[in-house]
Write a structure and sequence with these properties.
Endonuclease III, domain 1; mainly alpha; 216 residues
Length: 216
């Protein structure tokens, strides 16, 4: 198959975006949160875990620790009791407490809007920082989780496994004001149609513009 020209790829990405807008016009985060602090905590917990499992655990967690100052005063062992149903809960409890203490010490107990400041928090990588910055503060970004990475490669929009490189590839394809939507829509499509083990290519509305579908 000949290498796709950049202009053709951008045009194809535009058609994919149009279909995603038809399929998921209200695409948004499926994590439950009411504040930037709750979103930060939920996103840290969501790594290698389902949003459903996180949403089941956070009401009791937020009841016990409603803000960064309350969480900073806890021990990781105390926090573990609320998140045992979530994968990697011991390490996540440690990161949550450390992040809360840094919020109190350096940011007055508030989640910072600055992207680099978010990245400096324990347990926060680019994906988590992008999720918090975009959903809490409206900063354009494409957070690359397993779903977004998988679809980017299947759609031929990136060849990379490294999430940071996938992010850079995707951000070249759409204007910044659509990045947040694209992130959420690709996640929904990855969960509902283009699943990891058995993608439903015959029923996929993106199939006409998906190189992987043509090979399925």
């Amino acid at each position: 198959m000949p290498r796709e020209r950049k202009g053709d790829r951008v045009e194809r990405a535009g058609r994919v975006l149009a279909r995603l807008e038809e399929l998921y016009p209200e695409a948004a985060s499926e994590l439950d949160f009411r504040s930037p602090f709750q979103l930060l905590v939920a996103t840290i917990l969501s790594a290698q875990a389902t949003d459903a499992s996180v949403n089941a655990a956070t009401p009791a967690l937020f009841g016990a620790y409603p803000d960064a100052r309350a969480l900073a005063a806890a021990t990781p062992e105390e926090v573990q009791a609320y998140i045992r149903t979530i994968g990697l809960y011991r390490n996540k409890a440690k990161n949550l407490v450390a992040a809360a203490r840094k919020l109190v010490e350096e940011h007055g107990g508030e989640v910072p809007e600055d992207f680099d400041a978010l990245l400096a928090l324990p347990g926060v990588g680019r994906k988590t920082a992008n999720v918090v910055a975009s959903n809490a503060f409206g900063r354009p970004g494409i957070a690359v989780d397993t779903h977004v990475g998988r679809l980017a490669r299947r759609l031929g929009f990136s060849r990379h496994e490294d999430p940071n490189k996938v992010e850079a590839d995707l951000e070249k394809l759409w204007p910044p004001d659509r990045w947040i939507f694209v992130h959420h829509a690709l996640i929904l499509h990855g969960r509902r149609v283009c699943t990891a083990r058995s993608p439903d290519c015959p029923a996929c509305p993106l199939a006409p513009d998906c190189p992987s579908a043509r090979l399925a």
